[in-house]
Structures are given as C-alpha cells and as structure tokens.
Amino acid sequence: MTALPAPRNGTDYRIAVVCTGNICRSPTADVVLHALLADEGLDRQVAVDSSGLGGWHVGDRMDPRSARHLREAGYDPSRHRARQIAPGWPSAYDLVLAMDHTHLRDLRAQARRAGASAEELDRVRLFGDFDPVEPGSEVPDPYYGGDQDFEEVLTMVERTGRAIVAALRQGLASQ
C-alpha cells in the first residue's frame, strides 16, 4: 500500500482530487470518498474537495452521465458544482490526487511556479498510485465515451477510494 503524507497540522486531513474540468472524474472521486469516509466514521477528520485545472465548467453540475452512474450505485451527486483549483492550493492540502499523468505534470508545474517546497510537491500524487489492482494507473476520461466508460471510472474510483480510506484509517489511528 502506498503511504500517505502525514497531515500538516497533526490532526485533520485535507484531500483534493483534480481532473480537467471537474465534471466527470474528480467529482466522482469526491462523492465516493465522502461516502466511504462517512461509512468509516472518518468524515469529521478528513475533508475532500474536487477541482478542475481549467475553469470552463465552473459552477456547473456534474456531467449527467457521471451523476446517473453514481445515483444508480447508491451515491448522492447532487451537491457537486464544478470549480477550478485555487491559486494557493499547494499549501492548502495534505494530499492532492491527480486523475491522470497530464494532470499530475500540470499540478506539479503549477506548484513549482507558486514556489512550493519539496514537501508540498511530494503531496501531489496520482490517484491511481493507490489503486490496489493497477497501481500507478490513470483514471481514463469517460467524457467522449459511452456508459461502459463511466462505469469503468466508477469501478476504479470505488476500489481505489477504499484503499485510500484504509490508508487514512491506519495513518490517523497511529497519530
């Protein structure tokens, strides 16, 4: 299991999940992680946000196909509104999870331009680094695909989300 960076303040943990426009992949991960954390009783210790690298969809609801797959799986996607990652993000989160390698590269480049420390850069990881089936995998963009692509994203996000929550449970318990 990939180790999580330690919380910055020693108690609460802040996670951001990031994709391109914040309407498919990262909001799916946000909704699933919120539900899994609540199921484990960790929702008061761990905060999750999702954002996009671009601002094209700011204020929009989640892609209806993503929302439908989440609802069919028992999740509530209704609270999501797309947003763009804020300029001060490198110092705001304990862990920033990019949905693919391009996002990872762009986030690290943004962080470097903002003067992020080596520790802050190490907090920027690939969501798939925690995937127990395909470690280091990318969460594919389902936007131009069909139902099976959105279902694949949900399946990947659920199994990886369970692994992240398990790591959080273990890490927070050891403090």
CATH superfamily: Response regulator
Largest sheet: 4 strands, parallel
List how many beta strands DSSP finds: 4
Helix content: 25-40%
Shape: globular
> What structural class results from the helix and strand content?
alpha/beta
Spatial strand order of the main sheet? 2-1-3-4
* SSE pattern: EHEHEHHEH
Q: For this structure, what is the CATH class?
A: Alpha Beta
C-alpha termini separation = 18 Å
Query: What's the number of helices?
Result: 5
| Beta-strand percentage range | 5-15%
CATH architecture classification: 3-Layer(aba) Sandwich
Overall pLDDT score: 94
Rg over CA atoms, rounded to whole Å, is 15 Å
Number of domains: 1
And the CATH topology? Rossmann fold
Low-confidence stretches: none
Describe this structure in words.
It is a single chain. With 175 residues, this protein is of the alpha/beta class. The protein has a single domain (13-173), classed as Response regulator (Rossmann fold, 3-Layer(aba) Sandwich), CATH 3.40.50.2300. Helix content is 39%, strand content 12%. It has helices spanning 25-39, 64-72, 101-113, 118-122, 147-173, and strands at residues 13-19, 46-52, 95-98, 124-126. It has a four-stranded parallel β-sheet with strand order 2-1-3-4. Helix 1 packs across helix 5 (147-173).
